[in-house]
Fold:
Amino acid sequence: MTGKESLLEWKTDAQVIDVSHFDELYELIIASDFIISDYSSVAFDAGIINKKVFLYMPDLDEYLNERGINWSIPELPFPCSEDNDTFINQFNSFDEIDYRNRLKRFYDSLGIKETGRAAEIVADRIRTVIERD
Structure:
């Protein structure tokens, strides 16, 4: 768990690990069961690989007034909560199929067609160019 404020008052146990000093964000995304984020782009990085993402934004109105964001919250595929009770309800009632459908619609609307084969496609293209010359 990272961040200045804890979402809940977690007790140290085997299921919750404080990773606030871990440098490799992408390794943490891969290793995680789900992500709780705020306004960070980590939500999009995790979403693109179909990780469960929950947005917790207790200061949303203040943040919007001071900084603004590039998205309308309802447009995002991630459950968003501004308080603990809403978060817990969203977490407990999470629907995996609905979430994956929302992710697909969202990324499709942006023209993103992630297949997990980007490096292979680039390598094939480079090989083709090299072999032509």
Summary: Confidence is low (pLDDT under 50) at residues 1-8.
